[in-house]
Amino acid sequence: MRVPNSVVLPVGTHVDCCQEEEVEEKRRDIMARITAMLVERKRNLAHFINNLEGSEEPEFYVDQWERLKEMESCTLTILNLVAVNCTDHHDIKKLEATILKHVKNEELFPEVVRVLPPVYRQVEAAIVDIAQSEEMADHGMMDVQYLLSKLSQCKHLANLGRELLQDILRYLHRIGLVVWYEEIKHLESTVFLQPTFLITMFKLLVRYRLVQQLESIS
Question: Among residues 111, 112, 103, which one has the least CA distance to residue 8?
Answer without folding.
Answer: 103
